[in-house]
Amino acid sequence: MLIDNHHRVINYLRLAVTDRCNLRCNYCMPEEGIDFAKRTDLFSMVELCRLSRIMVAQGISKIRLTGGEPFVRKDIMTLIRHLAILEGLEDISVTTNATLIGPFIPELKALGVKNINVSLDAIHKDTFEKITRRNQYETVYNNLIQLIAEGFNVRINCIVLDGQNVQEILPLLEFTKHYEVSVRFLEEMPFNGGTKSFQTIQWNYKAIYNYIAEHYQNIEKLNSEATSTSINYKIEGYKGTFGLIPSFSRTFCGSCNRLRISATGDVITCLYGKPRMNIRTLLRTAQTETEIQQHIQAVIGTRSKTGFEEQEKYKGVFNNSMTSIGG
Ligand code: SAM
Ligand code: SF4
After folding, report:
1. SS3 of 220, please?
2. What are phi and psi of 192, to 5 degrees?
3. Across the beta sheet with 62-66, what order do the strands follow?
4. How far apart are CA 242 and CA 172, in angstroms?
5. 158-167, 218-227, 286-295, 314-323: which range is least confident on average?
6. Most C-beta atoms within 10 A of its C-beta, which of 34, 129, 200, 231?
7. Where are the domains of the chain?
8. CATH code that applies to domain 2-325
9. Residues near ligand 2 (Cβ within 6 A)
10. What predicted TM-score, i.e. pTM, was given to this entire model?
11. CB-based contacts of 31: which residues, under 8 Å, 6+ apart?
12. Among residues of the chain, what percentage have pLDDT more than 70?
């Protein structure tokens, strides 16, 4: 079992399988993209399978595949098939922009993948296209509806962006009237590949809640798991729910159970810090599984208590793009 220096059990791995993406969301990276990693610096499929085996053997019970866009990787299903038979892995989740997932939906279901997070910052086509700088709206919307129809536990992630998509909050909530999904509104974080820097945000979780509460009277607060990053609510009579994720305000750090591994193998113990080590390098040297696990445990033993504490230790983390970190 992985336990950090603050006695927190670390059982959730967010694994980025690529840093590439077919969209260019303006809060994530510049229009021209970022300096993507050299192909040889990305994990090979053999390495991803070995890495996940090692991590699950060490107590990871939930893996979320992320990126970049996970489905840009043509061999992504090979990894998911491997994960599906790993004993001890209870939850395989995916975070996706839903542009390329369509053909894989039946197999994902057959393999037992249940939780799919779809990033959708607008329910209106024009806003969607302005934010993503691509014209994939119909495909995304159709895939979203198909995922819901197939019974996946779908969560829509919407980053609330000042001056861009605030007008989408209410239509997205109305979506939960008819569909059993959770729409989660996230605070924008300054991980955009250096496009813009900011120290405060207007649309923090309290402002988002107040805005919603102005328009709906009957909002019920729901109980959430201790490790949940979202504060969850339900509008009376609506099929779905909504959540607020204070990703910039960071109210949830105390119960953090996550570890991140980037597509190039950087081990990130906190979103607001820099990598503590590179595990791809270890996999490429003749280290035994036990040796690799010892390195991981050592890194887990150096975690900051909160993102604010971590941020103090490093300069320049905000030049990074979320496509390299995995969200
Ligand atoms: N491409 C996939 C997607 O968009 O769902 C997976 C990778 S993406 C980096 C993971 C999550 O990070 C997405 O939900 C995205 O909205 C979020 N994200 C990206 N940049 C962000 C930022 N600057 N602030 C907050 N969330 C961000
Ligand atoms: Fe791509 Fe996801 Fe970043 Fe958008 S948020 S550019 S879909 S990696």
Report:
1. strand
2. -130, 20
3. 219-221, 231-235, 241-245, 182-187, 153-160, 115-119, 91-96, 62-66, 12-16, 258-261, 266-268, 277-278
4. 9
5. 314-323
6. 34
7. 2-325
8. 3.20.20.70
9. 21, 23-25, 28-29, 67-69, 97, 119, 322-323
10. 0.96
11. 24, 133
12. 99
Q: What is the pLDDT of residue 40?
A: 96
d(CA 228, CA 15): 18
Q: If you average pLDDT over residues 127-156, what whole number do you get?
A: 98
Which two tokens mark 130?
């302005």
Q: β-pairing, 91-96 with 182-187?
A: unpaired
Query: Which is the closest atom of ligand 1 to the Cα of 192?
Result: 23
Write down the pLDDT at residue 316: 67
The model's pLDDT over 267-289, given as tens digits with 9 standing for 90+, comes to 999 988 888 899 999 999 978 99
Q: E strands within the chain?
A: 12-16, 62-66, 91-96, 115-119, 153-160, 182-187, 219-221, 231-235, 241-245, 258-261, 266-268, 277-278
Question: How many Å apart are CA 41 and CA 266, to the nearest integer?
Answer: 11
Structure tokens at 308: 């604010």
- The Cβ of residue 199 has, within 10 Å, a number of other Cβ atoms equal to 7
Q: What sign does the CA torsion over 71, 172, 225, 258 have?
A: positive
Cα 158 to ligand 1 centre (Å): 9
Query: Could you give the 3-state DSSP secondary structure of residue 243?
Result: strand
Q: Which ligand is nearest to the CA of 157?
A: 1
